[in-house]
Amino acid sequence: MADAKRPVAGQAALSTQHLFVAREGNLVLRDLNLSISEGRWTAVVGPNGAGKSTLLQALASVLPHTGEICLSGQPIEQVKPKARARLVSWLDQGAAQSADDLKVVDIVMLGRIPHQTWLSGATEADQAAVERALHETNTEALRDRALGSLSAGERQRALLARLLAVEAEILLMDEPLANLDPPHQTEWLLLIRTLVAHGKTVVTVLHELSLALYAQDLIIIEAGKLCYSGQRDDPSLHRALERVFAQRIEIQALNNSWVALPKLI
């Protein structure tokens, strides 16, 4: 079993071939072939129940699968779990449900576990990474609060800080904007742009289509299959989005970006 390799410019950070994933005996993802580019932000979108969260969980190695998932060109099963945990960090919709008594600073320190040995305590590097993550998510004032005492939006920011503390090359986020108000959504968008500018690969599942259209690349999942993938300004991608949402939206240009507007029919 090999150590994980850092993504090389121009290669796929993550890819799948003939990926099948079942949950509770029901097939959710069917023969999925996709490639996620290194050093870019990719948004995964699609109707409710399409399999978006299941895809991220498979990529994060928290769901069994058949077919192939490759991490920086290596079959994911051949990468040591600890090396994989340093390379890929994961924000789940239901993360830390049993950790309500822990302080925020301790929750964020959990992101450093992949960098620590069995008997070692937190190092100066770990402490510095935690402080950076708290600063980047504007959660410094929450550091000594119990996770269970936070509002839903504050909790989401604390869990995002834990994700960042890993300092992974690839960040997977399932509904990271859930419960965030518009100012914190804007902060999140700026943070993602900064991460990508520093070479990180970001993959997000988003229901907010207008915010997903800020991503450089989009993957559309429909009924467990790849419907379309392309760059944000691809007209064919826009038409595929409108079709998969039953022509109830239309994609329009606005201020050098794109928005998904409701279409009343």
Task: Quickly list its features.
265 residues; Rossmann fold; 6-stranded mixed β-sheet; single chain; 29% helix; alpha/beta
What does the model show?
The strands form three sheets. Strands 6-7-8-3-9-10 form a six-stranded mixed β-sheet, with helices on both faces. The protein has a four-stranded antiparallel β-sheet with strand order 2-1-4-5, with helices on one face. A two-stranded antiparallel ribbon has the order 11-12. β4 and β5 (74-75) form a beta hairpin. It has helices spanning 52-59, 81-87, 104-109, 124-136, 152-165, 182-197, 209-212, 235-244, and strands at residues 12-23, 26-37, 41-45, 66-71, 74-75, 88-91, 170-174, 201-205, 217-222, 225-231, 249-254, 257-262. The termini are far apart. Residues 1-9 have low confidence and may be disordered. It has one domain (12-262): 3-Layer(aba) Sandwich (Rossmann fold). α4 (124-136) packs antiparallel against α5 (152-165). The chain is an alpha/beta fold and 265 residues long.
What layout of secondary structure does this protein have?
Layout: E1 12-23, E2 26-37, E3 41-45, H1 52-59, E4 66-71, E5 74-75, H2 81-87, E6 88-91, H3 104-109, H4 124-136, H5 152-165, E7 170-174, H6 182-197, E8 201-205, H7 209-212, E9 217-222, E10 225-231, H8 235-244, E11 249-254, E12 257-262
Helix pairs in contact: 4-5
